[in-house]
What we know:
The chain has a domain at about 35-100. About 25% of the residues lie in helices and about 40% in strands. It has 3 helices and 7 strands. It has helices at about 5, 10-30, 35-40, and strands at about 40-45, 50-60, 65-70, 70-75, 80-85, 85-90, 95-100. A hairpin with a 2-residue loop joins β1 (about 40-45) and β2.
Amino acid sequence: MSIGQELLDVPFPEMIFKMAKAIAQGQTRLDKSSLDTAKSASRQAWFPGGWRETAVWSRLALPAGATVEGPAILEQPDATTVIEPGHVGRVDPLGNVIVEARA
Length: 103
């Protein structure tokens, strides 16, 4: 039975959850070597205290489970995420970037 057939009798919110989970599970299978592909460049960026060499990443190429140490810039077609020095970004299983102060 395909996932589409399984979801025909499932309430809509549960269907969305199951689809998101299936997509996330597929994303977690990505090879960690895709991090090499995701890092696109490095450039100077201003942070408090002065200019810092900053890694530039392709946000959409980061696999689930990836962590990016600040300073970093995550670029995607519709947004740019800046991870400041002393912070770390982590891609969760659904593809969200969670940015937190480094412990």
